[in-house]
Amino acid sequence: MAKGFRRLPGFRDFAPEDFAARAHVFEVWRRVSRCYGFAEYDGPPLEPLDLYVEKSGREIVGQLYSFRDKGERDVSLRPEMTPSLARILAERSRSLPKPIRWFSVPQLFRYERQQRGRLREHFQWNVDIVGEEAVAADAEILAVALDGLRELGLTDTDVRARVSDRRLLTALLRALGVGEAQTLDAFTVIDKLEFEDPERSRERLANEVGMSPEGAAELLSLLAGGLGDVSARFPGRADVTEAEARLREYVAMLEAMGLGAYVELDLRIVRGLAYYTGIVFEIFDRRRGLRAICGGGRYDRLFELVGGSPLPAVGFGMGDVVLTELLREHALLPDATRSVDYYVVPVSAEERPRALELAHALRVRGRSVTYSLRQQSVGKQFKMAAAQGARRVIVLGPAELERGMAVLRDMTSGEECDVDLEELVEDDR
RNA sequence: GUGGGCGUAGCUCAGGUGGUUAGAGCGCCAGGUUGUGGCCCUGGAGGUCGCGGGUUCAAGUCCCGUCGCUCACCCCA
Question: What is the C-alpha to C-alpha distance for residues A5 and A7, in angstroms, rounded to an integer?
Fold first, then answer.
């Protein structure tokens, strides 16, 4: 490694091969978004620090890529898109027809120690429906995310969405005697359930949430099963019954869309961010080696918290880093071998003006054309043509030019024929 | 933020117990003559061995620090 300038840690260069992968992912994201009727938006990559401090929760605030600018403003590179969305919509949501379907592919920044799949910068596909509280909006959002992955070539054997509902969890906690003040503490324990020893979880539910041993045991057994007998266990609780019905409807909608094989109920999912209020989901690599590819859910309070008028909302974020790694493992990235339609070979300096003329005429018609920038031997020029992945080579020599002709060589078959120069430009296939 | 591992040419890596001008393969560049590529042959460029100290007659090789990468924790995308 030469001295001089080094890339900042956690940031990436995108040489053509890498850029091709990124462009491919972005194209699919945008195409799928539009298929679902979402419109693209963006905001500034730098925002006032306050936008995040007040809302995002301490975990994120500790990772903000923030500093003071020359105008003495405390600013931060955006660590997530949702606050910007809320800020933008706070100003104009009233004049927009509901539901608002917006998506974005912002580059986001977090100042944290980098690791595989976790950098200081990444691109994230954000899709949100704002202004609709019907559960169909929740289903729509997960469907977009799943179709994005499906369009990239991942199947239900590669990835799965684990879905849960904070309202159902809250209702269950109430039914088991956990008060509102302890709800978030309970979520914290639930979030760790699958990584922690059950005995330890029971202790934490007792000590940190104040549940009785029986209550803790019952909660654990409820969460371990599917949706099975949840409402049967609490026949009198309307909140439980209602939340359960909504979750069932949600799953039924995804099944109706043909995405049922991707979806799995798992009440242990609560998501880290504090602002979620309803159905939440995370999409994982089935083989589990990688982290979550995507996470999202309903956040009906956020707009009020940011100072706007209350608006129900549901959305997700999908990062490009882990996703691209996964696609690479599954050989789902297009090969980035560059190629050109034509490589023009002037035999000697005499033919160069005609070569330039021909190249330009073809380029104007949308063909990709290159030629050697120096006059070299024909053999050398053919080497370069091959190296650049030219599909065809056009040889211009004195003998052919005299007749207004050129030699056209197909580089894959090796076949050669004489062609009329004008016809070549007019109707190249 | 805490702990472990690693750091030699653009890439992948060799370089027992410290000893002269640091190597290979791939890639790159130039030739193998004047009108034909992907093979082959020949030659070449490219490294202050991450950086800075220290031990030693002598360090890529040992010690310390630092930076970077990486894994786990934390947390999340």
Answer: 7
Give the predicted TM-score (pTM) of the model.
0.89
Work out the angle between the directed axes of helices A16-35 and A135-151 (0-180°, nearest 10).
140
> pLDDT for A208-222, tens place per residue?
787 888 888 888 888
Residue A140's contacts (CB-CB under 8 Å, 6 or more residues apart) are A36, A129
Residues 128-187/A with CB < 7 A to strand B? none
Alpha-carbon dihedral angle through residues A328, A333, A335, A338, given to the nearest 10 degrees: -120
Q: Cα A183 from chain centroid? A: 31
Considering Cα of A361, then A364, then A367, then A368, what sign does the dihedral take? positive
Residue in the block written with tokens 């706070």: A90
**Which amino acid would we find at residue A217?**
A
* Hits for CB < 7 Å against strand B across A residues 367-406: 377-380, 382-383, 385-387, 393, 395, 397-400
ipTM for this model: 0.81
List the structure tokens of A27: 């194209």
Over residues A106-151, the pLDDT tens digits come to 999 988 777 777 788 999 999 999 999 999 999 999 999 999 999 9
